[in-house]
Design brief:
Mean pLDDT: 78
Structural class: alpha+beta
Order of helices and strands: HEHEEHEEHEHH
Number of strands: 6
Strand content: 25-35%
Number of helices: 6
Largest sheet: 6 strands, antiparallel
Helix content: 25-40%
Radius of gyration: 17 Å
Low-confidence stretches: 1-28
Shape: globular
Distance between the termini: 27 Å
């Protein structure tokens, strides 16, 4: 597995923090890196019983009913985060939701947006990636991503795993996170 974007993987990042006597990536200047996170939030649905059910599942931490995304945070404490995710083009449309739940492919969209700051909860630090290339690498990755969404086969979980592997070199990161959070 190659290390794209000059990434510092999770295991190595932990080791770097525990070796204060060595010149390591952290001491070279955090300004050269973005912190790479995986974040989750409740799935969206039409208001009413469907949204209530998804929100309840999220608060109960039911892993398969969460929306996952990749966040890049600059080293400044209060800097904005860049978020990449993959979801249905119209997640609030009940017909799209029904088709997706029945196993049909639905039109999806890869999004890039900015958050004012890192969410207060439900995010996990994965490692670091070189600032000057990780966002451009993520954009190239997004251009190549097949946007037909199929739940359980090609959805936000597969997108998050693939993008994290591309920019940070961590394979099956959601499997790892699920194992340590349950």
């Amino acid at each position: 597995m190659g290390m794209a974007c000059g990434a510092v993987p999770l295991a190595l990042a932990s080791a770097l923090r525990t070796q204060p006597g060595k010149k390591n990536e952290r001491q070279r200047g955090d300004g050269d890196y973005y912190e790479v996170y995986v974040g989750s939030m409740a799935l969206r649905a039409t208001p009413g019983p469907a949204q209530w059910a998804l929100s309840t599942a999220y608060s109960m931490r039911y892993w398969h009913l969460q929306h996952f995304m990749v966040l890049f945070k600059p080293p400044q404490q209060n800097g904005p985060c860049v978020v990449f995710d993959f979801q249905p083009k119209d997640p609030m449309n009940p017909f799209i939701s029904l088709a997706a739940l029945c196993g049909c492919g639905v039109p999806g969209i890869v999004q890039e947006r900015e958050l004012a700051k890192l969410p207060a909860k439900r995010h996990w630090l994965i490692g670091k990636a070189r600032k000057e290339i990780c966002i451009s690498e993520a954009r190239i990755f997004n251009q190549r991503w097949d946007t037909e969404l199929k739940l359980g086969e090609h959805d936000c979980r597969h997108y998050t795993n693939a993008l994290i592997e591309h920019v940070a070199g961590e394979h099956n990161i959601l499997g790892f996170l699920k194992a340590i959070t349950n």
